[in-house]
């Protein structure tokens, strides 16, 4: 009594690289909703966005210095 062993059918998945590239291209071209929200925040609250940029800049400098 022999059993017939067959290989499982190969599964195909859509290529994710095309969708990642499309998303990145849309984000870099200013089409992303997060960028639109950031621009609206900066226009509505210029002093708050400047303070946020300053705090992030100081944090980045301290990170690069290693302290």
List keywords for this structure.
single chain; 67 residues; mainly alpha; 3 helices; elongated
Written as H for each helix and E for each strand, in order along the chain, the element string is: HHH
Specify the overall morphology. Answer: elongated
Distance between the termini: 72 Å
- Low-confidence residue ranges: none
What is the number of strand segments?
Answer: 0
Percent of residues in β-strands = under 5%
Biggest sheet layout: none
SS-derived structural category: mainly alpha
How would you state the average pLDDT, rounded? 78
Rg computed from alpha carbons, rounded to a whole number of angstroms: 24 Å
Helix content: 55-70%
Treating each run of at least 4 consecutive H or I residues as one helix, how many helices?
Answer: 3
Describe this structure in words.
Helix content is 67%, strand content 0%. The chain has three helices and no strands. The protein is elongated. The mean pLDDT is 78. The protein has 67 residues and is mainly α. The longest helix is centred in the last third of the chain and has 20 residues, at 46-65. It starts with 15 loop residues before the first helix and ends with a helix. The protein has helices at residues 16-28, 33-44, 46-65.
């Amino acid at each position: 009594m022999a059993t017939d062993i067959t290989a499982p059918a190969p599964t195909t998945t859509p290529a994710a690289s095309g969708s990642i590239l499309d998303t990145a291209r849309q984000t870099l071209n200013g089409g992303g909703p997060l960028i639109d929200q950031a621009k609206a925040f900066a226009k509505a609250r210029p002093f708050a966005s400047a303070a946020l940029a300053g705090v992030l800049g100081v944090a980045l400098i301290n990170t690069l210095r290693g302290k």
